[in-house]
Amino acid sequence: MLDLQNRMNSKVNNDWMNQGNAWYRAAWIECGELMDHYGYKWWKKQQPDLGQVQLEVVDIWHFGMSALFRDGVAIESLADEIIEALAAHAPSGLGVLEATEALAEHCLRTKGFSVPLFWDLMVAAELSFDDLYKQYVGKNVLNFFRQDHGYKDGSYIKIWQGEEDNVHLVDILAKADAQSSQFADEVYQGLAARYPKT
Length: 198
Hints:
Number of strands: 2
CATH class of the largest domain: Mainly Alpha
Mean pLDDT: 93
Oligomer: single chain
């Protein structure tokens, strides 16, 4: 996943590591979007949309991984650091809203990212590591698809047949085989088949 994230960031900007991007800011903003999908408004009826909550967790992971990259540190070393951080942490048992707030608070306070607090959020959102991988690859493919279809210049169409592209992605992933050697290509082709022809 770190390798895929590096490739995606490089597609947007070849010199992305030296741009000083505020990855922590993007992560905590995604935390707010997650809370909208889960529901926190006691003054109106809301039903948690766990599929969209999990996609927001995956979006947070994109920005969180990006925040972990440091110049001169190999991807393999970053992966080892993540594994060590997880091995030293016992999940807190927090609920979705509380785990989201804890991660957002950490991002704001440290201007960084916490892998253990992210794990707490994964557990609260009922997202396994296998599911994180499947959904991460799916969202990574969607991000490449967006870039290939004009996201950067503003010509990309995000709503298809009345639904946001993320909703289409959830449907495609539900039918996809993450074990397939063609998994990423199949997701891309699924998106292309649904994308409006102009």
